[in-house]
Amino acid sequence: MSEMLIAGAQVVDPVGGLDGPRDVLVRDGRIAAVAAPGELAGSLQGELRVDAAGMMLAPGLIDIHVHLREPGQTHKETIRTGTTAAAAGGFTTVVAMPNTTPVNDSVAGLEWMLASERGAAVKLLAMPAATVGSLGSEPTDFGALVRAGAAGFTDDGKPVLEDDVMRAALVAAAEVGVPVSQHAEDTRLTGGCSMNAGRVAFRLGLRGMPVEAESRIVERDIRLLREIGRVERLRPHLHVQHVSTACALRAIRQAKAEGLHVTCEAAPHHFTLTEDAVGDYDTNAKMNPPLRAEEDRRAVVEALLDGTINCIATDHAPHASHEKEVEFERAPNGITGLETALGLALRVLHREHGMPLARVMALMTARPAEVIGLRDRGNLRVGSWADLVLFDAAAEWNFAAKDSRSMSKNTPFDGAAMVGRVRATICEGRVVYRA
Ligand SMILES: [Zn+2]
């Protein structure tokens, strides 16, 4: 039997509605007890007592949208390095996207990715492709993939564009009880585009992606949900990835009010930065969906505050320096995000916009767990996995890309101010990161 008593921390558990001083007892990888300070001292038989005075203790963070690049692009990241960066950022569960080489679209591919031999430092889950090869025409075998552990389905990096294919994917996902995660981009409107359509793109002479490219797909998917509900009597779960525009958020807000099963996520860069960060062709500010105008950034913040956005997800997308150090239009999309998410969320949402700390933590723990149907993670219930993050909520520091655990350093947040610093991350009762 292995035990650990974390004593003296301010404990935040959004699911239990807890925000106060507690001691937490971990036994054999699970939460064994949460009690008033001092009450558990007598029950500790094992070895380890962690003095956490002055620290916050919360469920380990959950990121339902990461790119770990293995198999096939291990010069950018591996499952081991990506999950090590996750642990350093306070994450204890990450969900890998399928756009690896080859695309993760089969039971064999999924099992290979999730195998312990890959050396994941934290709990690794995956969403396989919604269509074979993510080519957008033939849905994958949802039943077999869910039995092998699929957390949902997505062609992330690309949308499921064809109406009938998306319809079939939503029906198949509803039958097995998982979400279809949509990268909402009408690629018929974004060919040759490398940033947001607007004054910065105009100044730089770049083709811009209109906000409608995102909202049109979201609106189409919502129409499909209605139709499937009416015709098939099914209630599919649509999850909209990395929402970045006011118009898509309007559609999502309305669909939720209608009672449709729609959830969505926002990435820290979309509530922190605008298209101005592209500056003079900075490829570290190039991602898809792109950084938008200030009114869209504000709409994302607003939707986080009013609960329209269910959770925060990083869209961690590592690329090697030589790949990013090219002309803006040729550079790949994406930035790393696992080690800056908590510091940005606490700075922007908690400090600048007054969101209570417990709600920020909910957006990174209980709410993402809910989106993918995880019950024994993202909370501190007795019996749940002892996935925990211990952090100094008041610490102010500056992120340095060179110190990142990720193999890649492509971030627009090199030197950026952060609030809140991770001191330790515990996954299934094991310390996986310590500052
Ligand atoms: Zn995407």
Structure description:
The protein is of the alpha/beta class. Helix content is 28%, strand content 22%. It has helices spanning 79-88, 107-114, 142-147, 163-176, 199-204, 212-231, 246-257, 268-272, 294-305, 321-324, 341-352, 357-364, 366-371; strands spanning 3-13, 18-27, 30-35, 48-51, 56-59, 61-66, 91-96, 123-126, 153-154, 180-182, 195-196, 208-209, 238-240, 262-266, 311-312, 388-398, 417-427, 430-434. The strands form four sheets. Strands 1, 2, 3, 4, 5, 16, 17 and 18 form an eight-stranded mixed sheet that branches. Strands 9-10-13-14-15 form a five-stranded parallel sheet. A hairpin with a 4-residue loop joins strand 1 (3-13) and strand 2. The longest helix has 20 residues, at 212-231. The protein is globular and about 65 Å long. Zinc ion binds at residues 156-157, 183, 241-242.
Please tag this protein with its features:
alpha/beta; eight-stranded mixed sheet; five-stranded parallel sheet; 18 strands; 22% strand; binds zinc ion
